[in-house]
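look at this one:
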Amino acid sequence: MKEKLDDIDLKIIDILGRDSSTPFVEIAKQIGISDATVHVRVRRLISEGVISKFTISVDNDLLGYDHLGFMGINVDPAFAAEETIDQLLNLEEVLEIHEMHNSFDLFLKIRAKHLGHMLDIVENKIRKLPHILNTELITVLKTRKEEQMISLKKDIVEKDSSAYQNSGI
């Protein structure tokens, strides 16, 4: 899929990644194309699954969810981890679930309102799930950077450079 994305696609994705509410007319101005082209390309990127949703970024601390933790989980190897994952998917406080091949089978990102809330999530929602052998909670003291999307600026420069070289100029 990455090969099919040209510099215009990457620029559109980069702009929307920074602010998904940016109007197509504004994106078109920034890139130097028509807003109709932006519209067509965004529809294609959605249909191909490159863009999966438009969302907002919030300050969880200001919303009262200022406790962040990561949890490593080991699941009984006699059982498929899928059942545990399916149940974890239903927990609203679990923001991310990653399957690992390391010290843990699963690695979670969890948000809570306070330490008591974190304790409730860990003890009464996660550790009580079937087939969990052990868990380890790592609490975050301070977050310095938290992004949802990697910057595409380097990819855009590479595509622009490649297009320039291929033009024979």
Notes: DSSP finds six helices and four strands in the chain. The two ends are 28 Å apart (CA to CA). The beta strands are 67-75, 94-99, 106-112, 132-139. The first strand starts at residue 67 and ends at 75.
